[in-house]
Amino acid sequence: MILLDCGNSQVKAQFHDSGRLRASFSCSYKGNWCAVLRRWMQGLGARHCYFSSVLDRARQAQLDACLARQFDTAVTRFTSQAQALGVTSGYLEPARLGADRWMALLAAAEIIDGDCLVIDAGSAVTLDLLRADGRHLGGAILPGFNTSIEDFKRIFSHIDFDDAAIEQKAAPGCSTEAAIHIDYDHHSTETLPALVNRWTEFFSGEADVLLAGGDAFRVQRMLERGAGIVPDLVFRGILRLARG
User: Is the pTM of this model over 0.85?
Assistant: First the structure.
């Protein structure tokens, strides 16, 4: 089977066969990226594709057409739900939680027995709080370390950045608006550690930290606590759902 993690800046893919990871792939959304992806998929013998996506409508339409040509109807898209695999979303409207964040939470619930902070550091940096009982407490969305405020706003072009909820920073956000943290005087390098240190108080004891994304090692160096890096965190969540 093929797994796809369609993020803000690139699409990443894995090919699994007989219960093992056999090949992986990634490409940015430049040029005829769908053709590049399809060339990689051809010849692998995969019979089904499972994916999560945060793509805009135009790119999603391109991807859907590509997958339909490759797999016909053997395609399953996983989206954020109110509850799955023992995890309960903290979002007031669960469907609006980014699918990549939801997949990461499902993976974290399997990896960590106790309370956990999940940080995915890519073009946007997301932080989510997950209790040992599977309850998601909400989180934060910050610009990535190499993402300007202008590019960040383009990524979240569907959001009204004048929404008053964006100014509420005291507690983990339970909507995308309430999760967005933009401080024009401080970037993620200062905001993220402060949030981690403050929000651990929402847990009864010490919490584990799981890191993913291209800047995971950078975040690991910044934090004043131990943190484990799981590069394929989103894929692990997709795989849990695919296996049922």
Answer: yes
